[in-house]
Amino acid sequence: MTPTFSILHATYGRPAQAVAMMKLWHARSRDRERIEYLFAVNNDDPTKQELMERIGDEDVLFSRVLLVQGDFIGSAAAWNQAAMLHSTGDLLIQAQDDVEPPEDWSTRLLEVLWVNSPTDRWQDDSIVVAVSDGYRKDKLLCTAICTRKRMEAQGCFLYPEYISVFSDDEFTYLALRDARDGKVKLINARNLVFRHHHHYHNKAVPFDATYARENSAKAYGVGANLFYQRNPEALKDGIVTWR
Question: What is the pTM of this model?
Fold first, then answer.
């Protein structure tokens, strides 16, 4: 059976935390046989072997648990490769070490998809689902959720030349722009909170080596330059209101 959901989890240096989060996705869903869980990890991650061992103990939680490995420049490329080359589900969901899904997330996502689909089959539509991270009040989508049809039309899940930051800016910008132009259905489901337990929001969360890697000055510099090179109209069309 083709999975309904592909959960895409890029991780680095946090094997225990990553697997604990996978277990939480499992515990908070009623549709486990319809879910595949894909980790994406860098070949140079010194904790990769530990992650593999921990996954091996839990690979029966979903219909499929897969470890995608590669020489990624950062998390955006890892998420994208897992989505583009290895996922098979109809709805693609970005997962992270520090993002907690809500209770009954799969049932609640299906409800908003069926209610808001432009046709009788949401799987056939180009759709982005906008959820909340529990903190931000702006329009930035910190958890990317879209149908496979949307990913195929866009040409990627997240653009892989971003290191990390600004990949969510582009995903959000394109969703808002294309919704404006009638090219995608953007569903407002911000009552669904995928809480982002990030050091940025909660200083009690330790700023570890992975945060330093993902939020480096280089990552921000590369991200900002690439975003406006790829989307020069974003400088004047008024869609980006969160920077």
Answer: 0.94
